Fold this sequence. Notes:
Elements (H helix, E strand, L loop, with lengths): L1 H19 L5 E4 L9 E3 L9 E3 L1 H7 L6
Antiparallel strand pairs: 1-2, 2-3
Amino acid sequence: MNEEVMQLKTDLHRLTVELIGNCKYCSLISSNVEYKTPIYCTKFTGPIHPTCVNVTTCLSCQEYKGS
């Protein structure tokens, strides 16, 4: 069961990277699948101090669609 959960988390991470990886506000996506806020976003704070956000927050912004 644990291996299945880890595989699902890994697959979700890979899909997230593919979906939002080209967003102009996404400066980094953590490779740690256990991290709750893996996406470093610069939309509201600028490139010097990116904000760590979760996948739901990132996808709700929808800026990745215009990249």
